[in-house]
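Suppose you are handed only these lines of text.
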Amino acid sequence: MRTIGYAANAKASPLKPHVFERRELRPNDVCMEVLYCGVCHSDMHMVNDDWGMAVYPVVPGHEIIGRVIAVGPDVKKYKVGDNVAVGCMVDSCMECDQCRKGEEQFCRNMATWTYCGCDRIDGSNTMGGYSKNLVVREEFALRVPDGLDLSKAAPLLCAGITTYSPLRTWNIGPGSRVGVVGLGGLGHMAVKLAVAMGADVTVISRSASREAEAKRLGADRLLVSSDAEAMAQAVDSLDLIIDTVPVKHDINIYLPLLDIDGTICLVGQIGPEPEFDSMPLVFGRRRISGSPIGGIAETQELLNFCAKMNVLPDCEMINIQDINTAYARLAKSDVKYRFVIDMASLKME
Ligand code: NAP
Ligand code: ZN
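From them, the structure of the protein bound to NAP can be written out as follows.
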């Protein structure tokens, strides 16, 4: 089918309207009308080709909420009219040990990413959610639970699951002490989710001006990373730190904050980091770890958890025509805390 999206046609170029074809429905595909799409910092990394993986034209968007408008003959889970969601993956081999465990993000044959991925059947470049329609195999569409505000749920599909997954991996619950570095899209979700799980939460930010905001989001305190005295007082005080900083940065300043057996989990910067000191690791069995998104089953668990606990991101709704201004603001950390595109603003030309 013919559809329209917004695409970057070359490295770091502004996004513009782009008409393209979505594939005809395969037997197990659903076709959805995209209602809302979140704006992740990864979208901007990909448009700027920060990871050397971009295939242009890039139609970004992997925080997608939509409504089913057609289904293939073999589809069992969904019918026309259902509210569905799609995150960072649209397919995987579904046969390897990781896929069978429900950890499709670790597919041995590589998951198919929602944009700049290679379709497993026809080899085409995948196009993301900044578009009017999306076609996806039913296993990679999630059910939006009743009661979840559709206009706010989109960021759960990436910012939400990327922070929920490490919180679950490290068994965070009442009594756990969680630190969150960087109060952006991922960071503010990490705070809300950790609070909802009953943890004691510390936001670690570059700026003291974030204190009132951190507390409004539910955090117990703010630690300013440049305040040497406060950082010294906080030594050995955290079980898990989720680090969402999107650029190369020094993690050595955070390691002493971890208690014995504590873990820092990097979910932001993907790529080289400066050297780290092994002393706190060796003498406290501390760990440096990383984590990508989460599997399909865990993402459904997150959506259900958020509906039950009424955990929703703070969103700033924009029209698609404002996307380039939104990127400029995102680059300056000037968003509280996730832009969400109202896709009703995108009309077929
Ligand atoms: P974001 O909304 O821009 O938030 C990033 C936050 O990091 C900022 O709000 C800021 O918080 C802090 N920060 C920004 N620049 C910094 C710098 N130069 N030094 C120190 N701190 C800085 O971005 P996001 O959408 O949350 O994404 C964050 C990162 O996670 C991106 O790199 C994205 O690609 C990555 N990501 C990874 C996964 C995964 O699967 N692992 C999934 C989604 C996104 P303060 O002002 O409070 O310091
Ligand atoms: Zn993302």
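What can we learn from it? The two ends are 15 Å apart (CA to CA). The chain has a mean pLDDT of 97.
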